Amino acid sequence: MSRKHPVIAVTGSSGAGTSTVKRTFDNIFRREGIRAAVIEGDAFHRHTRVEMKAEVERADREGRPMSHFGPDANEWASLEAQFRTYGEAGRCRTRHYLHNAEEAASWGQEPGTFTPWQDTPVDTDLLFYEGLHGCVRTTAVDIARHVDLKIGVVPIINLEWIQKIHRDTRDRGYSTEAVADTILRRMHDYVHYICPQFAETDINFQRVPVVDTSNPFIARDIPTAGESMTVIRFRNPRGIDFPYLLSMIGDSFMSRANTIVVPGGRMDLAMQLILTPMILRLVEIGRVQHA
User: Fold this and answer.
1) Which of 29, 52, 73, 115 has its CA 20 to 30 A from that of 60?
2) Where are the domains of the chain?
3) Global pTM?
4) What does the pLDDT read at residue 222?
């Protein structure tokens, strides 16, 4: 972990809403004049889409789990190396995974492939990661130890599945049945590699719908922000000004000594109020050490 070159990671499962949270960070960075190097978790998948299909079929024949959530499908050692390198030198390398035809066309490539590796820009204030594995710890890697601020995005699982089903069928062309198969395939790795990260995070944002989500596979709509509450849990609540947050966020309340609950429509406001001073503190410390 480096205070001179801080690293922030937003971690959540597929369909958890990390991309939405990324937009909040983008707004904070733009408003506060913070220069962020950005890494996407998908950049550290090990296989192209065609290769992954073949690997999954081979894993099925061999009777072992294989999914994008687990170690066999990802370059975790490389991701850890990039975090470590940025912490030491303020630069690292990344690439993009091209999910669909529109993304791929701008690069002149096929969907499901990777762009070439590139260096992150010079003179950035921090590294920002958004993806599946920003806080992974295993016997082989310890990605979490290189991260200065760890954020978990963890909607309850039925809501997570609804969001994934709608995204993958609408934006990526999959059938509901194919998405259900993917969810089942990933369950072993979800339990062993995704869930444990949320014990490492400094803050978890968990959206909880207040409408019926009992069968996510037939839900016609994603519950709206107005149909949800957001549970915000702090690993260490020391220094968190809960009275201020309660006064600024209407209809919010404390459910535990380290947990505040806010209306879903005010999640962005809550994130702005909570995260802006934390980010500014990390950046200020880094800039002082650079001076």
Assistant:
1) 115
2) 7-290
3) 0.93
4) 92
